[in-house]
C-alpha cells in the first residue's frame, strides 16, 4: 500500500480536521468537529455558510495561518502539518494567494508597490517585480491606476489590486475570504467576473468563501457549512481511491 503522499491527491486534501478552543476546560468550544475537504487543481470551489459557522476558521487552517488540533492536511501532496512554523510561513507566501474582504492593502504605497511587495519578500529582482506587477495590474484592469495609493481608489479598484497582489508569486491556490462582502452589488459582480476569468482563462484554482448563496452557486462546486459541519466537501473519486487503498 503506497503512502498517502504518493497517491494522486487533490491540491487540498483534508480529513478529520478538528479545531477546538480552550480544550479540556469549561470554556471549551468546538469550531470544527472533524472536517473533510478536497479541492482539485483548477477547480473554482465555494464554501458558503452564515457568520459563525466556522468557515473563517477553516480558511485560516487551509491558508496555513492556524493549525488544527487534530486531522490530516495535505497541500500539493505534502503533509503540510509536519512542517515547522518557518517552513509554513515560507510555503504560505509562495503557494497561497490571499484576497480579503477589507483588501489589506498598505496605505502609504501605491498599487504597483502593493503588488510588488510579496515578490520582494520572495527575493525577486526589482526589474522582474516591476514587470510582473505591471502585467498583473493590466490583467485586472488597473494599469492606468498603478501609481495611485489605496486612498485614491474605489472599493472595487482596491479589490482588483488585492487580487493582482495575490497572484504575484504564482501561487497554487487563491484563497478569497468574502472578497465581495465590502462592495456594492455592481462592483461585487465585476470582482466575481474577474474570478471567473482567472479560473476559466488562466486555470487558477480558487477557493471562494462567502455567505452569499447566489454567488456561491456560480462556482463549479459548492461546499455548505453549518455549525462546523460540511456538505459536498469531498470528491467522490478521491474517496473511492482512498477506500481502494485501504485508507
Structural class: alpha/beta
Return the string of H and E elements: EEEHEEHEHHHEHEHEEH
Number-wise, the strands total 10
CATH topology title: Rossmann fold
Q: How far is the N terminus from the C terminus? A: 9 Å
* Helix segment tally: 8
Question: What's the CATH H-level homologous superfamily?
Answer: P-loop containing nucleotide triphosphate hydrolases
How many domains? The number is: 1
Throw out a few tags for this protein.
four-stranded antiparallel beta sheet, Rossmann fold, globular, 8 helices, alpha/beta, 247 residues, six-stranded mixed beta sheet
Description:
- One of its GO terms (cellular component) is plasma membrane.
- One of its GO terms (molecular function) is ATP binding.
- Residues 12-245 form the ABC transporter domain.
- It comes from Corynebacterium aquilae DSM 44791.
- This is Peptide ABC transporter ATP-binding protein.
- The protein is of the alpha/beta class.
- The protein has a single domain (4-244), classed as Rossmann fold (3-Layer(aba) Sandwich), CATH 3.40.50.300.
- The chain contains 8 helices and 10 strands.
- The protein has helices spanning 55-62, 85-95, 111-121, 126-139, 155-166, 185-200, 213-216, 236-244, and strands at residues 12-21, 29-39, 44-48, 70-75, 78-79, 96-100, 173-177, 205-210, 221-226, 229-231.
- The strands form 2 sheets. Strands 6-7-8-3-9-10 form a 6-stranded mixed β-sheet. Strands 2-1-4-5 form a 4-stranded antiparallel β-sheet, covered by helices on one side.
- The longest helix is centred in the C-terminal third of the chain and has 16 residues, at 185-200.
- It is globular.
- The termini are close together.
Amino acid at each position: 500500500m503506497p503512502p498517502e503522499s504518493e497517491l494522486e491527491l487533490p491540491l487540498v486534501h483534508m480529513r478529520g480536521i478538528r479545531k477546538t478552543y480552550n480544550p479540556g476546560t469549561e470554556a471549551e468550544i468546538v469550531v470544527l468537529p472533524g472536517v473533510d475537504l478536497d479541492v482539485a487543481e483548477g477547480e473554482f470551489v465555494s464554501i458558503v455558510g452564515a457568520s459563525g459557522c466556522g468557515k473563517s476558521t477553516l480558511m485560516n487552517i487551509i491558508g496555513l495561518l492556524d493549525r488544527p488540533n487534530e486531522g490530516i492536511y495535505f497541500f500539493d501532496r505534502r503533509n503540510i502539518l509536519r512542517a515547522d512554523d518557518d517552513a509554513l510561513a515560507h510555503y504560505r507566501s509562495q503557494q497561497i494567494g490571499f484576497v480579503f474582504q477589507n483588501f489589506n492593502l498598505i496605505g502609504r504605497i501605491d498599487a504597483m508597490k502593493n503588488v510588488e511587495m510579496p515578490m520582494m519578500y520572495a527575493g525577486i529582482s526589482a526589474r522582474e517585480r516591476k514587470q510582473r506587477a505591471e502585467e498583473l495590474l493590466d490583467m485586472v484592469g488597473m494599469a492606468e491606476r498603478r501609481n495611485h495609493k489605496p486612498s485614491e481608489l474605489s472599493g472595487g479598484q482596491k479589490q482588483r489590486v488585492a487580487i493582482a497582489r495575490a497572484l504575484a508569486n504564482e501561487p497554487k491556490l487563491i484563497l478569497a475570504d468574502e472578497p465581495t462582502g465590502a462592495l456594492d452589488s455592481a462592483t461585487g459582480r465585476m470582482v466575481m467576473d474577474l474570478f471567473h476569468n482567472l479560473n476559466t482563462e488562466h486555470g487558477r484554482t480558487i477557493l471562494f468563501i462567502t455567505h452569499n448563496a447566489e454567488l456561491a452557486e456560480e462556482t463549479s462546486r459548492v461546499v455548505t457549512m453549518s455549525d462546523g459541519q460540511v456538505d459536498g466537501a469531498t470528491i467522490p473519486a478521491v474517496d473511492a481511491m482512498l477506500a481502494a487503498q485501504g485508507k
